[in-house]
Amino acid sequence: MKTYKSDTIIIGSGAAGYTAAIYAARANMKPILVNGQQPGGQMTITTDVENYPGFKDVIQGPWLMDQMKAQAESVGTKIINDTITECNFKSEPFELIGDSKSIYYGKTIIIATGATARWLGIKSEEKFKGYGVSACATCDGFFFKNKIVAVVGGGNTAVEEALYLTLHAKKVFLIHRRDKLRAEKILQERLFKNKKIEVIWDSVVEEIHGNENPKKVKGISINNKKTNKSKSIDLDGVFIAIGHDPATNIFKNKIKLDKEGYILTKSGSTKTNIPGVFAAGDVTDKIYRQAVTAAGLGCMAALDAEKYIAE
């Protein structure tokens, strides 16, 4: 069992966590970053990245995270392979306990634990992730210019993704397991007006089909829950939009969360309801969910933490 102390402890190692570490280290706060179960966060399961500023050519998500990690370490961040399992924000310095039983004491805490997309949980989905199966239309829609795609879901995210994909794809199927959408009415109106979108009701995806070499999606099988009839659709991409889950289980009853489990921060800052505890990235952001916005929030959290200590 080890004990660590720092001006700031950063929990999580995606774009938000690494950026917070870079800024905190440059402010001489000697940050400790505990990297969690998925070092590098969601970017490590993203293959081609074309929208991160500063790179003319396509880069790889895992490579970008490796670069951020190397930069954080080079300016003085201590990175520890551990997962925080308990937190105590009632007394200062704040106390965190890791899976390794190590104890971390921080004058400030930056929570950057991220969120993960909910998936359908079928084998073929796992097989074609990054090869035509995606959970982010704004990240990957560009690759489906003039192609046929499907979006799975019925809430705001699913409808927004379907509408966005019409900017690239020639045809978009929206597949929903019920006979009406949960999305806001104004979004539904836009959806039903769009000639490129066809809604398939009462249906679930049973299987995603594709080629092995090169690996890519070629179609799906869906089952109508009312008629119990199955059918196949030829298409090039499948976007899963059934929601995200923020990684906030250990913070329940310790910090203010919204009804979906995202950490609530004060407008225009990364401050939580507990002075000295800050949150950044997808753990607070259910709208944009981009690496660049996560990095921006990570920067803000480090500056907020530095100011808190100075005061």
Summarize the structure.
The protein has 311 residues and is α/β, with parallel strands linked by helices.
Report on this model:
The structure is a single chain. The chain has 311 residues and is α/β, with parallel strands linked by helices. Helices cover 24% and strands 30% of the residues. It is built from seven helices and 19 strands. The chain has helices spanning 15-26, 61-74, 123-127, 137-140, 156-165, 185-193, 291-310; strands at residues 3-11, 32-34, 48-49, 59-60, 78-80, 84-88, 94-98, 103-111, 115-117, 133-134, 148-152, 171-175, 197-200, 203-212, 215-224, 230-234, 237-240, 244-246, 277-279. Strands 1, 2, 5, 6, 7, 8 and 19 form a seven-stranded mixed sheet that branches. The chain has a five-stranded parallel sheet with strand order 10-17-11-12-13. Strands 14-15-16 form a three-stranded antiparallel sheet. Helix 1 runs parallel beside helix 2 (61-74) and helix 1 (15-26) packs parallel to helix 7 (291-310). The chain is elongated and about 60 Å long.
Number of helices: 7
Number of strands: 19
Q: Into which percentage range does the β-strand content fall?
A: 25-35%
Q: Indicate the percent of residues in helices.
A: 10-25%
Low-confidence stretches: none
Main beta-sheet strand count, sense and barrel state: 7 strands, mixed
Radius of gyration: 21 Å
